[in-house]
Amino acid sequence: xxxxxxxxxxxxxxxxxxxxxxxxxxxxxxxxxxxxxxxxxxxxxxxxxxxxxxxxxxxxxxxxxxxxxx
Length: 70
Hints:
The chain is mostly helical. It is 53% helix and 0% strand.
């Protein structure tokens, strides 16, 4: 095997270790982001009250007398 200047024998295992470490860092970051989004979603739903998401709420989206087109 021919090595580039400054490259030492045995650097391939080091590169493999770095790749594995990089993958773990990315996986952990993705996992944390998913957990945070999930937590925020649950908190939003809890603040919304007892109304399940997407349920019918009488009067929701209806125009009031002030906003009705004449």
